[in-house]
DNA sequence: CACCGGATGTGCT
DNA sequence: GCACATCCGGTGG
């Protein structure tokens, strides 16, 4: 397995969102590693996309990191208590990103359960594994990703992406409209959400 | 299973 | 004020 380099992220955002499906999100924090297979992403296309935070925001403020070159994290607080983890794409002053919405837990399941207040067992059933990271807020809690991680380098040691998860064909990936962007007008309908078709770990 | 309200902070209008 | 790229626990079928 190889760590994904910056060139991967500095490309067309829809391509990055699609190609992230099946790759492995890896996290190392407080001495504990954990990881999961990315099964659901959403692309946010900056100035062309009413759903994107940078649609009407300049480089001052929370979305500022989106104006930096791709390959870093953009993390923000939502509903006062949850965080969402995004991967900044393209080049400087092209403020686009990919929201990572759900992963299938792979390693570090014990520490992720502890962070999510889920009872850990050696032989956990799907019902409980599903609860760990099947949504952007849950994923951040499980992986201990907070606003402090916004702007951090995804080619460093704390958060990064690995290939060698699932090698998904285009036929295995479905594009659908994004979730919970009712404020985005016509852009609600754009098929910018990508899921691994047969995964059981996609958000509801 | 479905639906619904509450939690809770930040950045807009 | 209020909306928000959310989640959870309660209630009722």
Write the layout of secondary structure elements.
Blueprint: H1 6-9, H2 13-20, E1 24-29, E2 32-44, E3 73-78, E4 82-89, E5 96-107, H3 109-116, H4 126-133, H5 136-143, E6 159-162, E7 173-176, E8 193-196
Antiparallel strand pairs: 1-2, 1-6, 2-5, 2-8, 3-4, 4-5, 7-8
The structure holds a DNA duplex (13 and 13 nucleotides).
List keywords for this structure.
204 residues, globular, DNA-binding, alpha+beta
Question: Which descriptor suits the 3D outline?
Answer: globular
User: Element order, helices and strands?
Assistant: HHEEEEEHHHEEE
Structural class: alpha+beta
Helix count from the secondary structure assignment: 5
Q: Distance between termini?
A: 30 Å
Strand percentage lies at 25-35%
Specify the biggest β-sheet.
8 strands, antiparallel
- Name the average pLDDT: 97
Work out the helicity level: 10-25%
Number of strands: 8
Taking pLDDT < 50 over at least 5 consecutive residues as the criterion, the unreliable ranges are none
Radius of gyration: 16 Å
Please tell me about this protein's structure.
By secondary structure, this protein is of the alpha+beta class. 18% of the residues lie in helices and 28% in strands. It is built from five helices and eight strands; from the N terminus they run ααβββββαααβββ. Strands 1, 2, 3, 4, 5, 6, 7 and 8 form an eight-stranded antiparallel beta sheet that branches. Helix 3 packs across helix 5. The protein starts with 5 loop residues before the first helix and ends in an 8-residue tail after the last strand. The structure holds a DNA duplex (13 and 13 nucleotides).
